[in-house]
Design brief:
mainly alpha; about 75% helix
Length: about 80
């Protein structure tokens, strides 16, 4: 299951996934810990912005899908006309 989720994350949000992978290997030998934490906080904010954008795009696609589906149902040439 983890392998599947990793592949999905790589395809859906490659930049965000790569940054999360870098967070796994926190190396404090390269600098001050507070600097590293500030950098990671910035990355987390950036990842949250990317996630919000993906959510907004998903909502847009969902709304467009609903509109197309409703229109196809209304204007379907194969549908029998309603007799009154």
């Amino acid at each position: 299951m983890r392998k599947y989720l990793r592949k999905l994350a790589e395809k859906v949000a490659p930049t965000a996934y790569e940054r999360l992978r870098r967070l796994e290997s926190l190396d404090t030998s390269g600098g001050d810990v507070s600097d590293i934490l500030l950098r990671y906080e910035d990355e987390v904010r950036d990842l949250r912005r990317q996630l919000d954008e993906v959510r907004r795009e998903h909502r847009r696609v969902e709304e467009l899908y609903d509109l197309v589906f409703e229109r196809l149902q209304r204007e379907n040439p194969l549908r029998e006309p309603v007799q009154r």
